[in-house]
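Researcher: I'd like a structural prediction for the single chain below. Treat it as a standalone chain; there are no partners to consider.
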Amino acid sequence: MTPSALIDNLEHLPNPFTQFDAIVSGMVGNTPLLKQPDFKRDLQLALCFIYSYNGSQATFNAYRREVERFLLWSWYVQSSPTTNLRREQIEEFIHFCISPPEEWIGTKNVARFKLHMGSRVANKQWRPFVSHISKLEFRNGEVPLAKQHSLSQAAIRATFSILSSFYGFLMQEDAIQQNPVALIRQKSKFVKKEVTRRQVRRISNLQWDYVIETAELLAEEDPNMHERTLFIMNALLGMYLRISELVADERSAPVMGDFTKDTDGHWWFKVLSKGNKERLIAVSDDMLQALARYRRFRELPDLPTIAEKTPLIPKNRGQGPMTSSRQVRNIVQFCFDTTYQRMCDDGMRADADDLRVATVHWLRHTGISEDVKTRPKEHVREDAGHASMATTDRYIDTEYRERHASGRKKTLRPH
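Model: Treating it as a single chain, here is the predicted structure.
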């Protein structure tokens, strides 16, 4: 069967701890299983678990995706509440996720629910899994097909992690006696162990020179549109920012007052990063000049004042801060596309190729990769907000250079 969505977006989801009966009353028509107490209780536990992550939209969405898939599989494939599943059935679910039936796979992202006659109803086009293609394939006119769906190693690890947390919650609620996910000893048959460090995805220094020059040219041609573009590009690379740290959301709204000067005259930028943790980023002299240029364009003093509430990245139209991460992606993509064309026009097509597949996050990787060459890695780790030094170590490629330099001397005819 083709399953229907169960759990709406956070802004349309009433608090399940206090309003569960109202939630389930609107779902029984589409989900007759909820007439049975065991399945009704299963949904209540799942909703309360997911709702506990309402402090972060991204985290809520990730946990909802995994738990919703799990509920649908458990109910409609196993005909069982999740509280009755055993270890071997969890393994079956992982196999199912790796190779789901085509009826469960969509070829585009669509909303789970939509408004119909004043009520939220399940979108018949929604599917628990979505097949994707690369940005380059899309540009070449290819379209995703359900049969091409594949699950990355990171996605499999996320599934294990979230399901284990879910069952930990069920144990705390006395709904189960033990965690069946924790009993799976041979996770290695699902998750491959990396025997070497993955190369960090970044753009080259030549590409960045062209990218920032392109942003400067765009700002000169149309300052009303692209002075903001130039500042965004500088901030993403110069301060290693994630998109979520640049736009306003339900957790925070970045303002100019987040740039602060300490008693030594040093400037810092305060952000709310992953896990709702605040961190301070050291602001370089170049970044401070980029900020001053942007503020002059906005008819503000060169440097922010204490507790200044001016939005860091305003909307081009309307009032208030930018709230759309998609808009930032579009801005960066336009800059990448324009740069790619400029490099091709200059006879550098081979050097420009990475820009056809690069994403916003590559700018963060690029900034960290360059800084870790000259700065103490402990300082880079703090600025980047890495949870462990092992993450920062991924950006140190000295051993790769030395390894390749020695490998180039190997001959095909040993002496």
